[in-house]
Amino acid sequence: MSDGTIDGPFGSDAVLAGEYVLHLLPPEARRAAEDRLAVDGAFRALVAQWSERFAQLADTVAPVDPPAGIRAALRQAVADARGTERRRRGSALGRLFAGGVGGLLAAGAAVLFLTVALPRIEPPYSGPLYAAQLQGEDSDLVVQARFDPRDNAITVLRQAGGPAPGRVLELWLIAEGAEGPVSLGVLPEGREVEVDVPDDLAGAIPTGTLAISDEPPGGSPDAAPSGPILAVGAVEDA
Amino acid sequence: MATTTRDDIEAMIARTAHEDRDAFLALYDATSAKLFGVCLRVLDSRPDAEEVLQEVFVKVWRNAGRYSANGLSPMTWLITIARNTAIDRLRARKVVHEDADAVGGLEDKAPGPEAQAIAASEAREIARCLDELDDDRAAAVRGAYLDGQSYQDLSDRFAVPLNTMRTWLRRSLIKLRECLGG
Fold this sequence. Notes:
A: alpha+beta
């Protein structure tokens, strides 16, 4: 991090995590912290720890019964959200439940992110997790990848850039000491996608390097990338 | 709420993840008063807190499947969603409307007798460790967590420069961490 929020005499990840939980970080630093939450298990654990501890302060907040109308609106909305008619009928709130989420998602992106990120914190699993930050000099593609050896899956989060129109992105593994890259497959569409790694390649991920190339639909016709490498990054312990 | 256990709430969240609306409403009944209290505390406005509470439960419905029993405790998860949603609303509101009494009201925001009784009975670690800080430092941490105050709000409230407030808070976090053991 080079934004200054964790540097200085009191800088540490624990403090940064505390500031994040207290909601004290300016928007840019807050987003940077959220990007880190996605790939950095130790940082996630710190955020979880502060979240649990500060949540105890809510003991001092007296419960207040909300007006009955809210429950009624929610009840109606979840009814609207179910079944085959979910997108066609119902209130604005009902449509939110059913998935027409544009405004809410935009307004609450950080919170939604948190709801995504937090449950992954402090998993019973205490073994290694791996992550790579992929970027290139000549492309605006920035991608975070994290590898979970429990299920041999790489989660790929596209932070900036994307495939050119009519093109696709293909993920490659360059194993330590290997002569060339091996394809891990074409990335599905979407900002965050999961790629299954074949068992025989999974062992090479923690010490390997990941790369993404620009390819025609369906991926490279060759065993090696046919288009330019857009982003590359070494895998490290997360 | 008193008779609803952590396991009960986790079960409600798990069933909500499967679009069980009765479980969702049971979860609402068990937790909405607490979460509404949290939203009100941050926003200090009933209409805003009502809207935010509704938004919170939309998020709970949509994200229940992502809650895992092995992660945060269920109330922490819910309180975090409520608090963050309320603070997002607070910050959005402040852009258009900076008003002077938003920084003053320590008394307005002090917990009522009922809440104080609850707090006393809990005797939680975080409270004990906050007590070890200087009074104004502890009040700043509480202001950030409970009232959603920003560094700027806190620096205004305690009449210290912004950088001083940052230093206070960061030192307080270090001390809290030492006190809490890790």
